[in-house]
């Protein structure tokens, strides 16, 4: 059976972040994540600060996924 199993919707690390920018699923033993990194324009400003904070959360989460030993695909729009 190759039906994806949703693991996570939303990037961990900020419970107040209500933007749907991250989805993670397991497909035949592979963890597949799809993301939409915030644009961050204009720079400097709050949108750019949000982008940097979001990316730091993503890096931390991705490190944990990669350390899990499972194959991982991190795909999407990295802006």
| Series of secondary-structure elements, N-terminal to C-terminal | EEEHE
Global morphology: elongated
Strand coverage percent: 25-35%
Largest sheet: 4 strands, mixed
Describe what this molecule looks like in 3D.
This protein has one helix at 46-67; strands at 5-9, 22-27, 30-36, 72-77. It has 79 residues and is of the alpha+beta class. The protein has one domain. Strands 1-2-3-4 form a 4-stranded mixed beta sheet, covered by helices on one side. A hairpin with a 2-residue loop joins strand 2 (22-27) and strand 3 (30-36). The chain is elongated. The mean pLDDT is 92. One of its GO terms (molecular function) is double-stranded DNA 3'-5' DNA exonuclease activity.
Task: Outline the fold blueprint.
Blueprint: E1 5-9, E2 22-27, E3 30-36, H1 46-67, E4 72-77
Parallel strand pairs: 3-4
Antiparallel strand pairs: 1-2, 2-3
InterPro entries: Endo/exonu/phosph_ase_sf, ExoIII-like
GO biological process, one term: DNA repair
GO molecular function, one term: double-stranded DNA 3'-5' DNA exonuclease activity
């Amino acid at each position: 059976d190759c039906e994806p199993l949703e693991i996570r919707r939303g990037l961990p690390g900020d419970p107040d972040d209500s933007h749907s920018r991250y989805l993670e699923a397991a497909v035949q033993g592979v963890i597949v994540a799809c993301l939409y990194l915030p644009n961050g324009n204009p720079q400097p400003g709050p949108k750019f600060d949000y982008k940097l904070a979001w990316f730091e959360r993503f890096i931390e989460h991705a490190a944990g996924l990669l350390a899990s030993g499972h194959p991982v695909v991190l795909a999407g729009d990295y802006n």
